[in-house]
């Protein structure tokens, strides 16, 4: 991702959205070729809430705003006690699960979309890295 600055293992069935449409420089977007699921990585300026729970909710609300969600609900926010196989110096993710009602693909009918969000707050730089998995229900 981002010219090799970040590495991640992704399933082979994902398509790089930038091959089909313009994607902002701060984003990497992947689409599942067999479903409406998408994966988005974003490098953003660090948001003001210092509280991890509030910072994750801020980013979740930002996604809801950007996608013109009609409603959004946070089901859970947590920080895992341990990380399995995380590289050294990797910050612990703040994990959020929620649902947003969004009209996808220019339809008028609303879709329920489950959002799995992982927020990584960088300590050395004033940035947040947001990973969002969007799964239409």
Automatic annotation (TrEMBL):
Pfam families in the record: Mog1
Comp. bias (Basic and acidic residues): 75-84
GO cellular component, one term: nucleus
The UniProt record lists the keyword DNA damage: no
Region span, Disordered: 66-92
Highest taxon, organism lineage: Eukaryota
One GO MF term attached to the UniProt entry: guanyl-nucleotide exchange factor activity
Any one GO BP annotation for this protein: protein import into nucleus
UniProt keywords, alphabetically: Protein transport, Transport
PANTHER family membership: RAN GUANINE NUCLEOTIDE RELEASE FACTOR (PTHR15837)
Family of the protein in this entry: Belongs to the MOG1 family.
The protein, known as: Ran guanine nucleotide release factor
Organism per entry: Serendipita vermifera MAFF 305830
